[in-house]
Every structure is written in C-alpha cells, then in structure tokens.
Amino acid sequence: MLIALAVLSWWLQRSVEPTxxxxxEEKQHEPDYYMDEFELTALNLAGKPAHKLYADSLKHYxxxxxxxxxxxxxxxxxxxxxxxxxxxxxxxxLNGGETVLLQGEVIILRITATDTEALQIYTxxxxxxxxxxxxxxxxPVKIKDGRGRTTAVGMRTDLRQRRIELL
Length: 167
What we know:
Layout (H helix, E strand, L loop, with lengths): L1 H15 L3 H9 L2 E13 L5 E13 L4 E5 L2 E7 L2 E13 L4 E14 L6 E11 L4 E12 L2 E11 L4 E4 L1
Antiparallel strand pairs: 1-2, 2-3, 2-4, 3-5, 4-5, 5-6, 6-7, 7-8, 8-9, 9-10
C-alpha cells in the first residue's frame, strides 16, 4: 500500500509540473526584436518596389522566424500604374517573409491610374503570398466596383494576372 501511494504521488507530481522541454519551448517563443511604426520596402529585380509593409508594431520570434503585426498595411505593386492597398487588424509573417496572414477584418483596394478600374474588397483572414503575388481567403467576400457589388464565400486572387476567382 505504501509503495502504491509513493508511485501515485510521484506520477501526480510529474503530470502537474511542466517538463524542461515545455519550459524551453515556451521561453524560445519570446521576441528577439521588435519595431514600432515601421516601413519595410522589398525591391524587385529591376530595383523598383515589389511591396511595402507598414505596421503599428512588429515582434519577431527567432525560434520559428515568424513575426506578429499590429494593424498591418501591405502595398503590393503590380505595375507603376497599379497597386493593391491591403489593411487588416493584425497579422502574422511566416516563411521568411514570403507569407503574410492578415487577420480580422481586411480591406483591399486596387488603385489604378484611372478611377474606372478601382476596386474595393472586404473580407476576413486573408493569406498573401508575396513572391507569387497571390492571395486567398475562405471567409465571406464583398466586392465593390463601378459596375456594382458582388458577394461570395471564399476568394483566390492572382494579382499578376488581375484574376479574382470567387468560390
């Protein structure tokens, strides 16, 4: 009986206390640097802006090379005469900066040289792949342009081809 009580006591202590591996993993996911009110510009091969990222704050985590963003504002350039202005409540940068997850309400504006091609998109939780200039969401989407309004649930957008696929 005494041995059973000792084993039960040992098991309870081990199951309640976090392991050293758990403590190490939690400690490793601490920011190694942060920035407030920053602007980052990535250039294409021709030396022109490919995209710009602004945010109220950024916290970078070295253990998985991710970063969290507060009130991100992403501008993706298609050409000198056209760009996409994307804003969200918060965000997460993954894959060495290749993927940006824009979280919460997302507002997307296509800005062109002529107002007739202007476009507004309202959605939630948008994934943007910067290298391929591709974005997608599974959330409800509202699109407004000069011709009217369109709604759908889910969207895939190829910014290079100016193609929007509603799901």
